[in-house]
Amino acid sequence: MDCGASHYKMDPVFFVKYAELRQHHGVEHAHPARCTDHSDRKNPSVFEPVHGSAFDIMGKGIANPIGAIWAAADMLAWLGEQESADAIMGAIERVCKEEKVTADMGGELNTKQAAAAICEALSATK
Does the UniProt entry include the keyword Manganese (predicted)? Predict the structure, then answer.
């Protein structure tokens, strides 16, 4: 079971979104890591892209920014900023549907362009 699937026990809505993105938009390697259940809020949580810093591709412009941005949305949700988290997730879903993604997901954008597409989609929701 991967990290995204482990969320099912904690948050079935997250799992459904994650499964849909994986199935329809190839977001298999872009989900964030939040594999520990800190729902009791007694311990700090960690929010990061699953594959870490990816030093091997640093500076090449081929890293997929979705995992880092999704992790930020996950952190916002955990902090009680659900509306902001939902807006970010909506922007991620939008760019995936429009195929404004990096090469690892079948797109043609570089890292900066993919991140900018998510920012544009987020701005369009305001």
Answer: yes
pLDDT tens readout for residues 55-64: 888 899 999 9
Cβ-Cβ contacts under 8 Å for 27 (sequence gap 6 or more) = 18, 21, 66, 92, 96, 105
Question: Exposure of 118 by Cβ count < 10 A (0-12 exposed, 13-18 middle, 19+ buried)?
Answer: buried
Read off the tokens for 66. Answer: 């979705």
C-beta atoms surrounding 13 within 10 Å? 9
DSSP run (H or E) holding 49: strand 48-49
Whether 102 contacts 64, CB under 8 Å: yes
pTM of this prediction?
0.70
Q: Is 114:103 a contact under the CB 8 Å cutoff? A: no
> Facing residues of 49 across strands?
32
Are the beta carbons of 122 and 84 closer than 8 angstroms? no
Q: Give bridge partners of residue 33 from the DSSP assignment.
A: 48
